[in-house]
Every structure is written in C-alpha cells, then in structure tokens.
Specification:
By secondary structure, the protein is of the alpha+beta class. It has helices at about 5-15, 70, 80-85, 100-120; strands at about 25, 30-35, 40, 45, 50-55, 60-65, 85-90, 90-95. Helices cover about 35% and strands about 30% of the residues. A 6-stranded antiparallel β-sheet has the order 1-2-5-6-8-7. A two-stranded antiparallel ribbon has the order 3-4.
Length: about 120
Amino acid sequence: MDSLIDIFNSIKIILSDLQPPLIVTADYESRYEMYTNKPANINGRKKTTVSFASLIIQSGYVGFYFMPIYTHPYLVESLKPELRRLLKGKSCFHMKKIDTELMQQIQRLIGTGYKEYQENGWI
C-alpha cells in the first residue's frame, strides 16, 4: 500500500470513525480536516474550535498534521522509532510508504490524542 491516495484514504478511515463528536471541515480528494466541537482555552488563548488532524496529499508524500502532538508534546516520547522518524516539525508526519505496523501505530496515536483532548474538555 504505497500509493499516496491509499495512504490518505487509510488514515482518513481511522479519523472518520471519530465523527461525531469531531467535525469534518474539509473533505476533498486530497485534503481532509477535523476539528473539535467545543470552544477551548489553549495557553491563554480562547479558540472556538481546536484542530485535531488534517491530511493533505503533497507531491511526494501525504502530510498527516496531528495537533494533539503539538498541544501535548510529551506524546512524541511514546512514538516508536518508525513513526517518529516521519515527524517533520512539531506536528506533521510525512507519509511516503505505509505498512500494517505503521498503520497500527497511527491508530494508537490517534486514539491517545483523542483521549487527551477529551480529558482537557475539548471534545
């Protein structure tokens, strides 16, 4: 499963299981975005919604933007080396190839991020 479209759709399926309560704000062939359904106060800033995750097909990879790793940076420590190696910047994973093990890691990470958002009252 190395096609960028296959990677995009595989992660999108995992994310789509979280709606509701998460809200899809963009659902296109090459872009998918999910936000929370509640206002939040993050680092002293009031937000009407909070980004949870986005997928964007770029020219050579799928960008998986995962905001719980940005708002809860300690989640990086829980990443296995295979997934951590794909993290570029604070919250974006560059997915060029994917296998069953990597998909399981992504699914666990999404579940952990969801729980963190719930515990903060953002979902």
